[in-house]
Amino acid sequence: MRVLQTTWLALAALLVSGCALVEDKAPDYRYRLTVEVETPEGVKTGSSVIQVEQSLGGAASAGGLAGRQIYYKFRGEAVAVDLPGGKTLFALPRSSNDVDWAARVMQMLAPKIQGEPWAESFDNVLLIKGVVEVPRMWPANATLPERSAFPLLVTFGDIAEPASVELVDPDDLAATFGEGVKLRRITVELTDDPVTTGIERRLVWMSAYRAKWFNRTSTIYEDLTTEDLSAHLSAGSFSTDYAK
Asked: Count of CB atoms within 10 A of residue 124's CB?
């Protein structure tokens, strides 16, 4: 199975079209993404505040629900959790199957109200109360199979070398970080706190990889024939401030 699937998991009705007319009638919001890890030294946590902007639009050439679209834009950066032994776990603002995971996770968790108009359903994210745990999997639906609900988890063999990036199995952190290290939970919570910034203080090479994959090839082209994680991640995978 490909490590990072080429992701077009935005449902067909959500795809952005150049002929769309945008209406800003969906709420913008911020949420705190928190990762908790059990270790022999106790629970270690990290968090990041992400901002999501939503706009509803309708294609000029279509009418009714079939012509409606939701546009997402998010700003934020990866969660960093410092673990024993000098290692750091990063939870990226994307998943293995959705590059816009950070923009959609709250809507996936929002209450569903039977019979409500489609356009009003995007207000439901504001009904989320308190800390909500992200499930391990999203259930299958009419168009998509069961899939991971977690953000992509990675670490670096050498944090000074981007090409040393490694995938971390959320179900087996011990395989990467040692015995007794286990993912406790991943949560989200609505917040008014400012968007988190400053990841470049940890990853000092960020500015050099705005337009390069971590294997040093240009992001103009993504080599989908390789499973090498460094060929699929760039600075923009860790922070929207560094997206090209």
From this structure: 17
How far apart, in whole angstroms, are the C-alpha atoms of residue 51 and residue 191?
Answer: 10
Task: Provide the residue-wise pLDDT of the chain in tens; the chain has 244 residues.
Answer: 345 544 333 333 333 433 444 556 789 999 999 999 999 999 999 999 999 999 887 653 334 445 568 888 999 999 999 999 999 999 999 999 999 999 999 999 999 999 998 888 899 999 999 999 999 999 998 888 999 999 999 999 999 999 999 999 999 999 999 999 999 999 999 999 999 999 999 999 999 999 999 999 999 999 999 999 999 999 999 999 999 7
Distance linking the first and last C-alpha atoms of the chain: 28
The number of angstroms, rounded, from the C-alpha of 24 to the middle of its chain's C-alpha atoms is 23
Q: Where are the domains of the chain?
A: 12-242
Question: How far apart are alpha carbons 67 and 65 in whole angstroms?
Answer: 5
